[in-house]
Amino acid sequence: MQDTTPKDIGAINFGLMEPEEYREMSATKIITADTYDDDGFPIDMGLMDPRLGVIDPGLECKTCGKHSGSCNGHFGHIELAAPVIHVGFTKLIRRLLRGTCRECSRLLLTEDERDEFHDQLDESRKLSRDLNDVTKAAIRQARKKDRCPFCGEIQYDIDHEKPTTYYEVQQVLTSEYSQRIAGAMQGDEEEGIERTTPDELAEQTEIELTRVNEILSGSFRPRESQRKAIEKALDIDLTEEDTNKLMPSDIRDWFEAIPDEDMEVLGINPERSRPEWMILTVLPVPPVTARPSITLDNGQRSEDDLTHKLVDIIRINQRFMENREAGAPQLIIEDLWELLQYHVTTFMDNEISGTPPARHRSGRPLKTLSQRLKGKEGRFRGSLSGKRVNFSARTVISPDPTLSLNEVGVPDRVAKEMTQTMNVTERNLEDARRFVSNGPEGHPGANYVRRPDGRRLKVTEKNCEQLAEKVEAGWEVNRHLIDGDIVIFNRQPSLHRMSIMAHEVVVMPYKTFRLNTVVCPPYNADFDGDEMNMHALQNEEARAEARVLMRVQEQMLSPRFGENIIGAIQDHISGMYLLTHDNPRFNETQALDLLRATRIDELPEPSGVDDEGEPFWTGHDVFSELLPDDLDLEFTGTVGDEVVVEDGQLLKGTIAEDEVGEFGGEIVDTITKVYGNTRARIFVNEVSTLAMRAIMHFGFSIGIDDETIPDEAESRIDETIADANDRVEELIEAYENNELESLPGRTIDETLEMKIMQTLSRARDNAGNIADEHFQDDNPAVVMANSGARGSMLNLTQMAGAVGQQAVRGERINRGYEDRTLSHYEPNDLSAEAHGFVENSYTSGLTPREFFFHAMGGREGLVDTAVRTSKSGYLQRRLINALSELETQYDGTVRDTSDTIVQFEFGEDGTSPVKVSSDEDNDIDVEAIASRVLDSEFDSEEDREEFLGSKPRPTNLSEHADDRLTEGTEVSSDD
Amino acid sequence: MVDVSQHELVPEHTVLEDDELEEVLTEYNIDRTDLPKIKRNDAALPDDAAVGDVIRIVRDSRTTDQSVVYRLVVE
Q1: Which of A123, A127, A894 to probe the B interface (max B CBs under 10 A)?
Q2: Contact B36 A902 (CB under 8 A)
Q3: Do residues A523 and A582 both lie within one domain?
Q4: What is the ipTM metric for this complex?
Q5: A45: left (phi over 0), alpha (psi -120 to 50) or beta
Q6: Containing domain of residue A753, as a range?
Q7: Do the Cβ atoms of B28 and A891 come within 8 Å?
């Protein structure tokens, strides 16, 4: 048995590894680049040495004796022939080279400066600021020093040639100094510089004339002081850069001498990390388990990219050693050294700019260490933060209005694949046996059983009958999903917590997940091909949590604004509107039909009796059947009328979007908060079914004739448009005659544009109003717009009246050709037509030019949405990463992992928007809530009075208290 | 110069006395460096606030009437 007890992590230290540590943890030194011999056995001290771990099942690890799967593998090591730089630390190496003395390796800061940075570092640490700011400032200050404050050595600039080469840059006398001096002494007539004679030069520089002549002839190299004097006198530069390459071994020696106390200021803990360890002398070889070789179908072995890279390193390492022992020239050695550096560099990171990536024989760049970790598919984001899971299913979704909003229809073939573990007891033994005997193919069947001895058996069509008889209490049965199981359901992008909710399973035929249309808004789902994911829960704790916390009905109220996010949508709203707006009458059959899918199976007293003596029920009364009996509400509704509910009876008002809709439908919201989630779920389910019955009763369809208006109206619209065109022409004329007065803060051009836009938008509105006059109130498009189900009057205006001005970037269309939008127009034509005003309606059809402008405006909309989604996705990711560790503590504060307070009270007021929602207009009605609680808590008026303290309780504690009773209801306080 | 601390939208900022500070730190069981920070040059700070002081900010709140937060003055 493996030890699987969870352990506490006390602390994690990050630091550099010492070469000696690499050797100590190494299982073997690697010296040969070969992997397997001709017989297919791994070569000792080769890259596949059996001491590095086992990958073949059945073999035993030579180091730890475990088998493949339980042996994690063991590191080996390569002794590098020469030190090489670790690419991960090039920046730090550069900083250290620049900040320390080339001679004595001490930090180029005086003791006082060093202590000051030390204090700053302590403070930053306390305030949990970025320590890099301080260490960077320290290096910057150190770099300013020309000489070491301790040993007085001159300091040179360090040049870093990426990725791993460092140079010391020295300013030395150029070899062509005599020519340069002579050239400068010639003077320049054009620039008015006079000739300088050697005499004058000698005088100015205070150098002897003979010396000057020697310098001019090139036989004497001027000393530094002389060079500076000449440079000053002639205003020239006699230096050139001399670069001196620093070999890794030089750097290692340099770093070894850095004293411990200097390193703390640089943010390095010398006990854990010595800087010279950034220069590798030993290379750890990852265990074979980290780079398994694969046997291809044809029996050939294919090695991992890391193994290939290690082969390269060992080959070069060997060549290097051979060449050095043979006494090869320095040039060859340096070349090999660089090659070794290249291979070690690309072993760790194969995507460094400036270095060609190491490639596979096929030309594919190798995937080395850094590539395994980095990025979306890397170890962190791809394998640790997120991974593929078992017991999940994904398929297309489709609607099913007969389901409850808590349910999800699961295809039978999914239900048969995903299982729930059933612990067999005496009480469920029969069920368990039935599942097993149904086998893996029959529906409520089982796929596996587990005997008490831990043995797992697959249930097959052949053995299911026999197996079923053997099942006893104590066994485990992996049975299929059945109706009522709880599963998690999700649609990406998971932008808020309602994107993942728990549903109860209803197993169904066919291949799609089915869901009630009222849960579309929280998932933002539709049925144009959307797919969703389902996860079957695998232990009781998870199932219980999902049921209590994650079920759809528990997510009814949005944590964003505290109102219901689930409610009637689209056709439900049209249906409710039709049912309640004109308060139509229904006979008994009709009324019963409307309510057939609800819990109500008996009609209330009829609302009245019609002329023929038949009883009838009104839409309001039918709807009222769904309301809780004691609901009281009064508010202004969607269509602007007063909605009044008294004792669970809708007295007046139209039921539409603001009453039962998805985002803050007043009735749904109130029921959720007052009567609870379960009642709200029932209500929403019933509203949607009643609405569907209602809309089917009335019939609801829309066609092109519903957006067509009479010829008379058509011509009136044409008139308005022509009128607007005339006014635009007037404006343009006024503009051209400079008679237009500019609006405050605008140029004349802007004023004209604004006025034209105004005129044209008014023209469209007028056209819309004319069209509106001809629409009946029972026009389906009008019903949808008025009830808030879908669309608006603007859409109707555009279909029947005029489409109106097309805009790109909020302005009339101005782009295209020089000074005009299309070649159909004169240059500088400012008219409405030439800048994208569409006079036609969608019904009458657009002209080709109008169509083109319309497409321009439409394209902008598409681009905007595309850009917005990608931008907001990235923003979301960054927000999640920034806030993921914040947690509300038991004392109500919100803190991060280092216990820094972010908010002193959750949300600054310690309230959850789901529990108390209010805004500027709607304060919380504390009185109403209090009296509701009291009403439900106390049966009699007396108990209630007593609780409130308005009437004292008779007491037998003391005779002195008796008088309280006689004094009446007044409460006297003891203090 | 406009004194922003007099503006109606700027909540009241006061420097905490030592004993008050002690109370706050024990209430939340924290060091003063665990508090949120405010820059010394923040225009809303009272003139006598120095680096290392802790400021109490009392905001009006629609939901809780008053919301009290503390901030550590930093450079």
Answers
A1: A127
A2: yes
A3: no
A4: 0.91
A5: left
A6: 704-863
A7: yes
